[in-house]
């Protein structure tokens, strides 16, 4: 505790948007108020859910994290989501029971090497720590496809990601998995990623950092 206080004095946490001093997370109170949350009871694209709308400051930060790329911003966003979980007593009410573990929708290894990190994996690690449950790397991305943002509709997206994710070898899945990703649009990627987990006998809850309509 003393060490943390000293570090905050000499190396203060700063808001990634306005660069003002912050406290526990890299977002000042003023900027936090500008972030558009999604009601925790709201279903996005069927059974999928998301914490924030892909707009404003969240959109700006996600673009910076993914395409500069900037791992520190990715970690800041994961802390924001974790903070959101902790501050909302009803945030996890939709879980019929506490997940046995957290997993994530992985990047293809080539894209991960190019970017230097896997954004969804960073989010999953933070959420697993918040919920005090294991993080399990269940899935493997088998193809390096063009970004889904180039697709015009849900059917095209579903076709592009069909069979893209498989379970890693010698994997025994836990009964209830919280599967996370950075952005959900039509839910095509979540559908493809959850399929091998459901086939293996798991109940899968999908949750993204942000939600954006297809035409955004």
UniProtKB/TrEMBL annotation:
SUPFAM superfamilies: PRTase-like
Gene3D superfamilies, per database record: 3.40.50.2020
InterPro entries registered for this protein in UniProt: ComF/GntX_DNA_util-trans, PRTase-like, PRTase_dom
Signal peptide, first to last residue: none
Source domain of life: Bacteria
Family the entry assigns: Belongs to the ComF/GntX family.
Protein name: ComF family protein
The organism of origin for this protein: Sulfobacillus acidophilus
